[in-house]
Amino acid sequence: MNAITKNATVKIKRCEKLPPVHFTPHPLFGAVFAPHILRMNLHLDGTNDFNAEIKPLEDEPFSPTSSVLHYGQSIFEGMKAFRQKDGRVGVFRADKHATRFRNSARRMVMADVPEDVFLKCIQEYTAFVADNVPSEPDHSLYLRPLLIAADHKIKVGAAQSYIFYIMSSIAGGYFGGAKPKRARVMVNRQFVRAYPGGLGEAKTAANYAASIWPQRLAAQRECDQVLYLDALHHDFIDELGGMNFFAVRGKELLTPVLNGCILDGVTRRSLLEVAPALGLKPVETQLSFTDLRKQIQTGKITETFACGTAAVVSPIGEFLFQDTLEAQPELISLPEQNPATQQLLSHLKGIQHGEIKAPGNWILHV
Ligand SMILES: Cc1ncc(COP(=O)(O)O)c(C=O)c1O
């Protein structure tokens, strides 16, 4: 057992195990659920006994009076369990997700889930649903820990009661399913997702709510995602709606510096950490879109990609750029070849599936 989880005093009641979910390869992301969830009640005042329950997903009741539905106290994580080369199941960088979850809860004034409790729940839940972890190439079980406010009160303020859940769904390819395609990304200076002093750094529902309208406009122009620029200058690159951003310039691996408005992505961090071993120099910097555009057009920047737990490492082939919503869009294309992106992708996948030795405690075996 991983050292970090051995002290957690979590008691878990388990239901009878249901058969694993059936799926066709590369199902729609986030739509095919494993049949069980983990559920635990928590209080803001910290008087928590950490009694959890693993139960059938379909038995969970829900009421429209729940305060989360009205005032948005909702945080979550997205992490993956992978079938390892040796047949075991391993969760990728669970400790990093545990810390980020706790930070998000603090920012949103929600009940605390200590790291060891979070990790123990992840470990026990994943072990219980392990027969749902796919063995097919490029598949995994996407784990979704969620914390929601659960007071039955229609008055704005921090709730006293919370529910911690873990659910999971089958994940295949994110862009283009079995045949991954290079993403086409929309950039519009008028789109704002997060701003200094706001919630951008927390993995909370409001950030995703803010991205739904820009995402809709992007989809109407056949774009897969939106790349957001900063809220003050409308020029510095922040991140995509659900992924961090990278660019390759010679041997430099460029990514926007953490500025409080973007998520401290676990995939981003992992790529920065493995880059030197692959001959790339990680550079965290302020990256203006104006400069990026110029450097793509002059051939200095040759590759761009998005990364995240769901999308892994997804090459970006085109940007559709607009100064304003009314402006004529400009198409900016990147070369077909993206050797650094492919090298990072295959290295990361190798680590996640236990084919390449993971640094430190990156894989939590269940
Ligand atoms: C807004 C946002 N940025 C970045 C990421 C990538 O983070 P990670 O690599 O931890 O999945 C995600 C996905 O969780 C996200 O939702």
Protein described:
Helices cover 22% and strands 30% of the residues. With 366 residues, it is α+β, with helices and mostly antiparallel strands. Strands 1, 2, 3, 4, 5, 6, 7, 8 and 18 form a nine-stranded mixed sheet that branches. A hairpin with a 3-residue loop joins strand 15 (301-308) and strand 16. The longest helix is centred in the middle third of the chain and has 16 residues, at 205-220. Mean pLDDT is 94; it is low at 1-5. It binds pyridoxal-5'-phosphate (PLP).
Helical run tally = 7
Number of strands: 18
Average predicted confidence as pLDDT: 94
Structural class, please?
A: alpha+beta
Give the tally of structural domains.
Answer: 2
Going by CATH, the homologous superfamily of the largest domain would be: Aminotransferase class 4, branched-chain amino acid transferase, N-terminal domain
Strand % is 25-35%
* CATH class descriptor name of the largest domain: Alpha Beta
Q: Give a list of the ligands.
A: pyridoxal-5'-phosphate
Through-space gap between termini: 8 Å
Overall shape: it is: globular
Radius of gyration: 21 Å
Secondary-structure element series:
EEEHEEEHHEEEHEEEEHEHEEEHE
Topology:
Blueprint (H helix, E strand, L loop, with lengths): L10 E4 L21 E8 L7 E6 L11 H4 L2 E3 L2 E5 L5 E4 L1 H14 L7 H14 L11 E10 L11 E11 L11 E6 L16 H16 L4 E5 L7 E4 L3 E6 L2 E5 L9 H9 L6 E5 L3 H9 L3 E8 L3 E11 L7 E4 L5 H14 L10 E3 L1
Parallel strand pairs: 1-3, 9-10, 9-16, 13-14
Antiparallel strand pairs: 2-3, 2-8, 4-7, 5-6, 5-7, 6-18, 7-8, 10-11, 12-13, 12-15, 15-16, 16-17
The protein binds pyridoxal-5'-phosphate (PLP).
